[in-house]
Amino acid sequence: MTAQLPAAPAVPEATGAWREGARRGDMASAEDDFAEFVRVALPGLMRYGHALTGNPHDAADLVQTVLEKVGARWSKINRSCADPMAYVRKAMANTHVSRWRRTRRETLLADFPDMPAASRHDRLEDEPVWAALRALPPRQRAVVVLRYYEGLSEAEIAESLGISAGTVKSQASKALAALRKRLGPLAEGGDV
């Protein structure tokens, strides 16, 4: 996904107008409803994807992959889910974990490339909190991002990720302990 995303107005959550026409049931309204959902939810989904993956390019790929799958089944999802945004977040977390499991294996090359690829420096790469967050396992990172970045409650996180509230609490506890350990003096000063 190479196109720049237009700036969207800040919205607390993707609910509202896209739900209005959801009950009509015809194909055109389902497409319009999905388009409106994407328009409203995209900025939040991109932020969530960036926090999950660690960089904006992988985030855009993750969001696009999930929205393609969701778009194909939108009318059914919109009818059967009380909160389609929670469904999309869960799909993003699951897709990210699946992708991470597939790609974490070592990839061997027969020959080195002639020229190394020019990499652009991510401005958050040297940020200690961001680096510590990237070092967390995907499920713990998802819980931390949803709780402290998106501001969801434990119950909303459990629903979004399809796990129990107890699992949310334990994953958050483990993640915060790992962040405190990794950040050391930064965490003790209350800056984190």
What do these coordinates show?
The structure is a single chain. By secondary structure, the protein is mostly helical. It folds into 2 domains: 73 residues, no CATH class; 68 residues, Winged helix-like DNA-binding domain superfamily/Winged helix DNA-binding domain (Arc Repressor Mutant, subunit A, Orthogonal Bundle), CATH 1.10.10. It is 66% helix and 0% strand. The protein contains 10 helices and no strands. α2 packs antiparallel against α3 and α6 crosses α9. The longest helix is centred in the first third of the chain and has 27 residues. The protein is globular. The two termini are 32 Å apart. Keywords: DNA-binding, Sigma factor, Transcription, Transcription regulation.
